[in-house]
Sequence to fold (534 residues):
Amino acid sequence: MEDSSSIPFLPESHSADQLEPPKHLPVPSLDDNFERYIGDFGWAQLLQAFLVSFAWVFDAQQTFISVFTDAEPSWHCTPHQPPATDDLCASASDVCRLPKGSWSWDRPADISIVSEWNLACAGSIIKSLPASSFFMGCMIGGIVLATLADSSLGRKNMLLVSCLLMSAVGSLTIFSPNVWIYSGLRFICGFGRAAIGTCALVLSTELVGKRWRCQVGIIGFFLFTLGFLSLPVIAYLNRDSSWRYLYLWTSVPGLLYCFLVRFLVRESPRWLMVKGRKEEAVATLKSIGTINNSSFTLSFSGLMVFEEAETTTDLHLYSVIGILMEKRWALRRLSAIMSVGFGVGMVYYGMPLALGNLPFNLYWNVTFNALSEVPASLIAFFFIERLDRKSSVLAFTVTSGVCSILCVVVGEEWESVKIWLELISFFCTCTAFEILLIYTIELFPTTVRNSAMAMVRQALVFGGVFCPVIVAMGRGNGYFSYGIFGAVIISCALFVGCLPETKGERLCDTMEEEENKQMRASSGSTLALGLDHP
Fold:
């Protein structure tokens, strides 16, 4: 048998007409051809996937850093006060009801923006402004940057620009003189961060074959957990230092990481091929492929790609979104998956921010929540090939919502039960979050995949925009935080019923190919129905 590694992409002596397959045969896709020539999962692909996915570490740190920098520190009553003041201070739970000078912070004022800028009595809107600004920046950034990775910049360059902007602005945040400048910088930081997760996930999965695609996608979730888990460690080590040091230790490494991305990460060969940059696609395949590819030819004219893929080279910024809106099936999928994402995002981003409302140590609370992402990632990593996408997302989201509502129902005397319910709820949300992103990759073809993923992440972030205000309102009433979280995620989960099942399906490269796959599936179902009922 002839070694497959010695077979070139095409015999260069043949014409394009000769290479055209018979009309009755299915046209091979990029997914089929890349699976053939990229070989099995090797060290080069593992290194590329790890380098790309490591951006999730810095993404997680900037997303949840406000849990510590914007926290309201503990306080105590000052001694040598009049008896009436002492009694009032001892019974009060809100410093805003106490006379000035009758209380003070337990630690230095600069450990949090709340104590440094006297925001304790500023109201929920002002206290939640920095965190809300960050998520608002994420949402606006996602809209502006949504299609650049598909249309012009590509996956690698978009990842580099986003990570560089986020880390640079994070470094500048240490010079904030007041809450207004601080909120503005958080907005810009969120704007830059918007495309990191999307590009990292799509690029890492497009660098490997179908067999390892889901597992490689989960690597990013593990690294996101690592970034989340590093926050309480860094915060605890700097617990008596200024909140500015937390931004310093999380932003400078991100800048160094950008240099690694610039010089070591390769662009997606799928995106290069779809954009007509065939020689670059071949060079990338040669560098990351595991088979003997010494006989690769630079000609890809025999690699069949639908004509639609070639025309996408000239798409403008929002053309990809326009394509999604024009196709009824694509619009239905996008609307449904974004609705589910909104509910998942509200709980996923809101619960860590609400940890300060629970009667437990903040550092341990954040640590346990970060650790709860580990089993969620493990489930996704080892069982993603076996899990039905629809039923899994529905089961985890509903369970999360029920546990979140029970956090409010359980009385204060059951503090440990309340903490366990919160952890179960967050674990289910994390699992649903990870399956949802993999689900999104499988629902849309290569030409619009990054844009569709960006839109879904926008829905996730849009849910996060409301979280800081809801959490601030919930400091006095749990129904305004955990109760809302549970009701929203259960309601949004119902939209998953509008989506098709994608487990085991191959990825398509163009909208036309996806439509043809649907037509074949529909014809197969009709034929089977006819055989059952002669």
